[in-house]
Amino acid sequence: MRSPTSGLRVSQAALLGALHGPAELLPISSSGHVAVVPWLLGWDYGELEPELRKGFEVALHGGTAAALLISLRSEVTDFMRTTNPRLLGLVGLASAPAAVVGLALERSIERRLGGPRSIAAGLLGGGLAMAWADRAPQARLSDDATAADAVWLGTAQSLALLPGVSRTGATIAAARAREFTRADSVRLSRHMALPVIAGATALKLVRLRRRGLPAGLGLPFAAGAAAAFASTLGSSWLIGQLKRDRSLTPYALYRFALAAAVIRQLTVRRATIAS
How many other C-beta atoms can be found within 10 angstroms of the C-beta atom of residue 64? Predict the structure, then answer.
């Protein structure tokens, strides 16, 4: 019987944490990277039970979130200071679809759609949506957001529960499709996603605490979280790059390339088994 620690070495956990920071800041799916990179490299990460893999992702998100609170402290302060009933209502409306779908279907999605094929499909679909939506005019500012816009972003957040889609990518694409400027699409994406991220992280932490962490996994989890914290701080300049008036096409192309690598590896492994 395999040890529960055999699928997650400290060095591998640290490398995944280092990858998680920049992948979380950009619309390229951090969860997709954490899943497919070990698979592409032939690691035993997939041997971990699904709940423990999700618990590890929570640790990475925790490290990234702590770093973002530091690097974005002025923006968070401004958001809290300017919050009003209208904005709270929009954020709540945008959070509701993901909360409902997540509570109802998240476990089923994790069990059935967490493999390389599903992630490759999510990378491709999300990339196509981003490239298509980014062709829309840049005609609106975030202050113009309405209830209909919040529903669009909320629907995008619920779709982002599918592996490889990316919450950041989905919400930015939804905002661009509604003709918000690129900078304001990024702003709306972050503001509307905060409650969903906080709620999902809290839920997973509660589940992990109830289940307990097997002996030997504490150090890899800590190493991953620390690496995610450091890599997020070190790559926080990427936030500024994303906020600028730049096309989403390069991110879409990167997603296509990663999906192609996964599909190619699936083909090679299938041919090897057949022979």
Answer: 25
